[in-house]
Design a protein that fits this description.
Low-confidence stretches: none
Structural class: mainly beta
Strand order of the largest sheet: 2-1-7-4-5
Shape: globular
CATH superfamily: Beta-grasp domain
CATH architecture: Roll
Oligomer: single chain
CATH class: Alpha Beta
Amino acid sequence: MKVMIRHQRREVEVRGRRRVREVLVELGVNPETVLVIRGAQLLTHDAQVGDEDTIELRPVVSGGTE
């Protein structure tokens, strides 16, 4: 699968079918710091992804007022 890591402006290829959490760990990305998107769908960390997929990692941004 193609993994687009937006905040690092890079793309990597990961082979094989696995859960999103496993892909993130393999890439050294803390699962709590990114949103994982496939097309227009937000994926959970338990979702299965495979060679045919393109997923995008976007950093979680929070904010608000004091």
